[in-house]
């Protein structure tokens, strides 16, 4: 009986770990931002165009670890910006967007 409980517990831990591991990082170049519909369009490293949804849970993180309060309206989300996205297991929603450095205005 005890052995069955241990096996069940291990199976649940492996299952939970696989759910967390389902998130993936995607390096990409920004093509378009649609703040009205909360969607970003990117070109991935392998040349594929993809659209991802952004929601209130999406974190926008700068290169030094600071979190942007502007969200999808951040000025660093400009066409051609190189980003790293952390995509949820559903392969549609962005959990985290790692922003590039802000360009100086000259």
Tell me what the structure shows.
The structure is a single chain. The protein is an alpha+beta fold. It has a single domain (23-98), classed as Copper binding periplasmic protein CusF (OB fold (Dihydrolipoamide Acetyltransferase, E2P), Beta Barrel), CATH 2.40.50. The protein has 1 helix and 6 strands; from the N terminus they run H-E-E-E-E-E-E. It has one helix at 2-20; strands at 24-34, 39-44, 49-53, 59-61, 82-87, 94-98. It has a 6-stranded mixed sheet, with no helix packed on it.
What labels describe this entry?
six-stranded mixed beta sheet; alpha+beta; 34% strand
What's the short version?
With 106 residues, this protein is an alpha+beta fold. The protein is 18% helix and 34% strand.
CATH architecture: Beta Barrel
As a percent range, the share of helical residues equals 10-25%
Listing every helix as H and every strand as E from the N terminus to the C terminus, the arrangement reads HEEEEEE
Indicate the structural class.
alpha+beta
DSSP helical segment count: 1
- Shape, please? elongated
Largest sheet: 6 strands, mixed
The order of strands across the largest sheet is 3-2-1-5-6-4
